[in-house]
Amino acid sequence: MVVARSQSATLASVTDGIFDSSVAPYYDETSRDMFEPGVLGPTVETLAELANGGRALEFAVGTGRVAIPLSEHGVSVAGIELSQAMVDEMNSKPGSERVPVVIGDMATVRVDGEFGLVYLVYNTISNLLTQDEQVACFCNASEHLAPGGRFVIEVGVPRLRQLPVGETMLAFDVADGHFGVDEYDVVNQRLISHHAWVDAGGGRALDSTHRYAWPAEYDLMARIAGLSLVNRWADWHRAPFTAESTSHVSVWQKTAN
Ligand SMILES: C[S@@+](CC[C@H](N)C(=O)[O-])C[C@H]1O[C@@H](n2cnc3c(N)ncnc32)[C@H](O)[C@@H]1O
After folding, report:
1. Which residue's CA is the closest to the ligand 1 atom numbered 13?
2. Which residue of 15, 16, 69, 84 is surrounded by the most CB atoms within 10 Å?
3. How many domains does the chain have?
């Protein structure tokens, strides 16, 4: 079996470009769970409601997994994305012509106009590897919002309570030919997600590096950016966030002037 290693990363060698042309064509297939109607349906419904009739801007729009169905739902959607290869995949899909995308860094790039909603889903805030970049991202979201507009992120809760003292590795998935292990670096608040996909035709592997944070740290970033927490749910079905929640959908609102 040939395992194509898309990128090798260690905690000491953080690199970007993991969503380049070697990965982008496989993104939808390897993320197929996230395209399931049971996942995407409530995501789109909730975002459409939060847009409240205004325009929406997706940070890190990727291959348009959320942006295209949200625009089909009647919301005017634009995107920011770092990877041209991911946008090329998006542009091969029907409906992409309704979603204009600016290539650039979501922490710094500006899109013209004001938005009722900025959203950043599927753990992607954690692709920004420093606190400064994450704060800049919150500030950039806030600068795109009209007064009363909302910024939404969807991100996992760090699984540190499950990490035994002295250990660094936690398996997070063994299903449907996918094997996932998170490698924690608690000193630097980083983790590497090691993925392998195996099927009869061979295999692929990918390592992605993330900066994790507790919900409280995101709330402080939001406050720095002039945003206040209005909702924190455990998922897109808006289940209550509890001590056992493994991820959260958090909604902050820009103070109305
Ligand atoms: C996990 S994918 C999510 C894509 C899409 N939002 C979705 O839910 O399917 C992460 C995406 O974030 C993009 N990305 C990572 N860092 C970024 C940055 N600083 N600015 C803009 N996009 C970024 C990657 O290129 C990739 O397309």
Report:
1. 60
2. 69
3. 2
